[in-house]
Amino acid sequence: MVYFLFINDSLPVSLVMQRFISSVSSFPLLAIPFFIMVGSIMNYSGISRNLLAFADSLIGHKTGGLAHVNVMLSTLMGGISGSANADAAMQSKILAPEMTKRGYDVAFTAAVTATSSSISPVIPPGINLIIFALLANVSVHSMFIAGYVPAFLMAASLMITIAFIAKKRNYKPSREKPASAKERFHYFGKAIPALLIPFGIILGMRFGLFTPTEAGAIAVLLCTIIGLLIYRELKPQHFVQILRETIQGTSSVMFIIVGALVFGYYMTLEQIPQNVASMLIGLTDNKYALLLIINVLLLVVGMFIEGGAAMIILTPLLLPAVLNLGINPVHFGIVVIVNIMIGGVTPPFGSMMFTVCSILRVRMVDFVREAAPLLGALFAVLMLLTFSEGLVMFLPNLFN
Q1: CA atoms within 13 A on the CB side of 69
Q2: Which residues contact residue 90 at a Cβ distance below 8 angstroms, ignoring those fewer than 6 apart?
Q3: Quick check: helix, strand or coil at residue 177?
Q4: In Å, what is the CA distance from 90 to each residue of 15, 325, 340?
Q5: Alpha carbon of 352 to those of 6, 62, 116, 345: distances in Å?
Q6: Membrane-spanning residues where (predicted)?
Q7: CA 352 to chain CA mean position, Å
Q8: First and final CA of the chain: distance in angstroms?
Q9: Do the beta carbons of residue 110 and residue 356 sit within 8 Å?
């Protein structure tokens, strides 16, 4: 606004304000409040609890069982809520108290909860996947499909790290012995309605039954039906709180998008994206070296700026250089999203870190100490994804 008011006065202020309003007059952006609402409905509908029981039946018997369940629940939840902060808050209230009661260190519990929540937005229908697709003008369907392999790699890396820590500290399993096949089938049967939601969304988009925006509305409808008629835990009085949480979540995201899009207008007028692209291309003509430089930039920026805002501001700056060196924009998008999700767990401004630390009353220094090995595992996955385009693009190439 300082730029438009005092530096470049060639545009009327009314036209600039019109940009603020028109920037969100976008049909695809309707997907954001829909998927935020899905995450809120899950917490009242019994979906979270049934997914938790199913995850516990699968791996609760392992050493450090509840920590493994924490990671698996985030992976299962990601296909429905797609929100890291919603996942972190939900698990801090539902699973974390049980972990501390079973003898897990509260700082370790907070670290597992925050780092595992970084998986949720990488699995469809993650909001960041939708936003990046709009920014980079790529297929939302391709971004959705590309998210599965990275998300499962993140989950596997966290679970391997947790296994070593749990064995060293002798964290007890949540079950004395593995669940029987009959018991696992029972919990799987109860979780099927919830598990079918992400597959229904992907298949519906794949076969052209609905757009990504309409998929959000379908997901809200399905979660509501499941909560009301199948699990029967969703009550009419819950909808006031669900709407309140949806409005609050949507408002914070939309203010970032509005500000960033107008900021992008300023950058276009000053030709900043072209200059940054030229500078980056001048540094290297190797696409992997460029991705490494971008990773370092995003990790540093992510320590000080909220991940979604960083992605919205930096993507238009970096994309011209990326495309010039022949980097697939879908591959680039996955690298960016995984990167900013790691930033959400790192100090000093990691949003998931603040969420779990405030709910569980953990000091930041204790959190960072416990999160360090888990963050190391996520960094390793980030490097693997950066240098393995074929790994990221395997599913999109298979289904397109």
Answers
A1: 30
A2: 42, 43, 48, 77, 81
A3: coil
A4: 42, 41, 21
A5: 37, 26, 10, 6
A6: 20-42, 143-166, 187-209, 215-234, 246-268, 288-305, 310-327, 333-360, 372-395
A7: 10
A8: 42
A9: yes
Is residue 309 helix, strand or coil? helix
Helix (H, G, I), strand (E, B) or coil at 222: helix
Contact 102, 68 (CB under 8 A): no
Pairwise CA distance, residues 151 & 159, whole Å: 12
Give the span between the Cα atoms of 371 and 369, in whole angstroms: 6
Residues of the chain with pLDDT under 50: none
Prediction pTM value = 0.76
And the tokens for 386?
Answer: 């950066």
Q: How far apart are CA 341 and CA 120, in angstroms?
A: 9
Domain interval for residue 315: 1-399
Give pLDDT, residue 108.
93
Domain count, the chain: 1
Residue 270 neighbours by CB under 8 Å, 6+ apart: none
Question: In whole angstroms, what is the distance from residue 303 CA to residue 388 CA?
Answer: 25
Burial of 349 by CB count in 10 Å (0-12 exposed, 13-18 middle, 19+ buried)? middle
Amino acid at 178: P
The one-letter amino acid code at 315 reads: T
Q: How many residues does the chain have?
A: 400
Alpha-carbon gap, residue 256 to 250, rounded angstroms = 10
Backbone angles phi, psi at 46, to 5 degrees: 90, -5
| Residue 349 phi, psi dihedral angles, 5° rounding | -125, 25
Closest CA to 351 of 313, 304, 315: 304
* Cβ atoms of residues 41 and 242 within 8 Å: yes
Q: Which residue has the tokens 């597992």?
A: 112
Q: Specify the pLDDT at position 346.
A: 84
DSSP one-letter string for 331-369 = HHHHHHHHHHHHHTTSTTT-HHHHHHHHHHT--HHHHHH
Q: Give per-residue burial for 93-120: e unless 16+ CB within 10 Å, then b.
A: eebbebbeeeebbbbbbbbbbbbbbbbb
User: 199-210 as b/e, with b when 16 or more CB fall inside 10 Å?
Assistant: eebbebbeeeee
Q: Give me the amino acid identity at 283.
A: L
